[in-house]
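User: I'm putting together a teaching handout on how multi-component assemblies are represented. Below are the sequence lines for each component of a complex, exactly as they appear in our records. Could you produce the 3D structure of the whole assembly as structure tokens, so the students can see both representations side by side? Please keep the chain order the same as the input.
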Amino acid sequence: MHVVFVYICLLALTAFIVLPLGWMVTAALKPDNVPVFTFPPEWFPTEYFNFGTFVDALTQPNEPYGRYALNSLLLASLNIIGAVLSNSLIAFAFARLNFRGKDVLFAIVLATMLLPAPVLLIPQFLLFFNIGWYGTVDGFPAGYLPLIVPAFTGNPFFIFLLRQYMRTIPKDLDEAARIDGASNWTIYWRIILPLSVPALVVVGVFTFLGVWNDFFGPLLYLDDANWFTVPLALAREVTTVGTEWNIVMAATLVAMLPPLIVYAFSQNKLMGGIASVGIRG
Amino acid sequence: MAMQLGDQGARGEQLSEGAVAAPLAAMSGGTPERGAATRSEERTAYIFLAPWFAGFIFFLLIPLGWAVWLSFTDEQLFRSGQFVGFENYARAFTDDPSFYKALQVTLTWIVIAVPLFLISGLLVALLLNQKVRGMGFFRTVLYVPAVLSGVAIAVLWFTLLNSDLGAVNQFLRSIGIEDPPNWFQDPDVALWGVAIMGLWGVGTNAIIYLAGLQNIPPDLYEAAGMDGAGPWQKFRHITLPMLSPTMFFLFIGELTAALVIIGPVIVISGAGGAAGPADSLLFYMLLLYRRGFVEGQMGYAAALAWILTVIGLLLVWVTFKLEKRFVFYQA
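Assistant: Of course. Below is the structure of the complete assembly, with chains in the same order as your input.
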């Protein structure tokens, strides 16, 4: 009896999560001349399987979501490289090296998590705007720089996560390598970095999700549709008149699919990585 | 190991001037000598930290100082400003009718969103903590919205909640509800539309609660069971106190998130910064965006940001004051 009640609740909850997605897929699979909004609503595709809508959404000349997806991927890749390199370097110093002021500096790193984002919004924008990191300059997307460069300066949450992870790697490894004449750079690059891969995957995945889903950054710094990201283009399209809803729903699916795929593949490592940090830390 | 620690202690006074010069010296290629192992280690450490120092100075410290200055100027997007004293702050409280509307909308949102997301997350976590087959699948599905783009979620839900044609109202009509809510067309209901959209992401809080639930030692429940406690008493006297630190953490998170909400609304409102019928969705950050980036009044927007920060600090301070009364920490 108890089990039946639990399953009823679970199924209701699952329906609440899945049915909106089902409606979206149904709408996206309809050809142009079929009404998207029906009475009663269709929660699952039964009649139409027109994959051409996706081709249209990806290639249509006025809103080419294929191009936007490549833009988003470019930003995400550069951010992942920046985040993995910078955060691992910084975390290595805090986890494995001795230097004066270490505890104070680490406290400052953690304290920066508490800085109020709204306050930084205006001056950061003006800073980038005034040095020309905005919009498009001679065909070069200068507005990408504020969306990429900060990733190369580390992020307090990732620094903390990686430092906790690196502290669990036995110190004997460093000592042995040091006796063999290895420099700190070699120890970082050859020993600690390869052993930190599970935590680095967590950093990479969170960075990907953050950048792919980011809307506010691109909204502030990009002005040329050629360089738009998927969320920015999607938000613009729904506010223009004469929207074709099957195309919009296909584009929404394009925006959702990469995070879903990443989630599907990294779920274990993601939860494992977070859990190990929590337990060992 | 012991020797190394000893070295470090002696070196403390010896090298008080070297901190700034050290990174430069190391970059010019000074080879590490055995005796100066810790000194070279210190240089390396500062080089490793160089990216963080750069970001800290250029992207945090300078903007933070500038934000204070800006809020006392009439800076515009294309024109640098003059010092105007407290004029921006005075304007917010006396000469910008939208300011009070934005405060009212944001505080109403806090009153709706914080309890709603805290309680729904807890209920879902209790459900996900049941021992039945296939639970892994349900947990995975429930967390899906947490990884999706906020814009995509907003577009989807604004479509679903369209008052005439949206799937939600069509469904409500099909089960006999003649006059379903007009959601984003009705100023009295618009915030609840945003709340439903937020409920779709209930999995995020549920997973955090779930970790808290699984950390409660089972023998507490066994002991209570032997003393004759029923399910409700176990929940009230074991689960709730043991979860209260998690709840406190989530409370602070939801509170600050509710204060700075802007995302879903700016999607429908577009870059122009409109805010739903009768400004019913004029969140504080949307007003800040409108004044700063749409109208270009950077100085005034900076002042708005500081006012919001002070309100946020006050709310968090009150929360920490109440912590001792409501949060139970295991000895």
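A couple of points students might notice: The radius of gyration of chain B is 27 Å. Chain B has 15 helices and no strands.
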